[in-house]
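Fold tokens
===========
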Amino acid sequence: MKQLLTERDLRLTKSLGQNFLHDGNQLRRIADAGEVVAANKVLEIGPGLGPLTELLVAQAGEVLAIEKDARFIPILKERFAAAKNFTLLHDDALELLKRDRRDWSAWKLVANLPYSVASPILVELAEANDCPERLVATLQMEVAQRLVATPDSDHYGLLTLLVQLRYEPRGCFKIPSSCFHPVPDVDSACVVLVRRSQMLLDHAQGRTFTRIVKRGFSQRRKMMLKLLKQDWPAVKLEAAYATLGLDAQVRAEKLSLEQFVELTRHLCS
């Protein structure tokens, strides 16, 4: 990888979160976590020079790679010119996901995500009407910890709930900084999330859930009931709290996903 970057006189761009994973063992662990088989369609965001892409193309029936950096497009086209199951898009993945509301339900995401946009990309996919069946993403350790967090822990918050509403965490493993080029200033991890077999809320309720969670965590140290009164009548909120047995002074970080779901159902009724 370093040789190729030197030969092409390519300098990685920090603003795009470009820290390329080059360790073969870690790349295989990520591909294995995707449980990719020939019947699968795989979405890869930020393929870079294509080391993970190579493994995915060998295993999947179809691979769609989205690369924002124009400098890598000719390299990827040249490298995978013979791969009939490979499609490459030169685009901003986050913007594409927002404007192209396609059906991702038969897809898996397997990617070393650009760290600068990893969280919004995962939320965008999780909130899609037809979200992917599996998300396998390498990202900052701090973000990975937020994705798999449990209530009343330091990392539990908005990102946790927006993703876990649709996905169950199934694993998380650390990837040493030395496995990347250039070596990042932060620790990294790969997280595995599997789509829930049954939706906890319908799409309309899901939008209300998002409003509740965003408002509840807008000021973490304040009582959630007081914050929610900005959007819902006090009488309706107090009745829901009483039915669910919630303390009027409870903060959002203390509530479980299931409690947020039940609160959403009451406020939608």
Q: What stands out?
A: The chain has a mean pLDDT of 93.
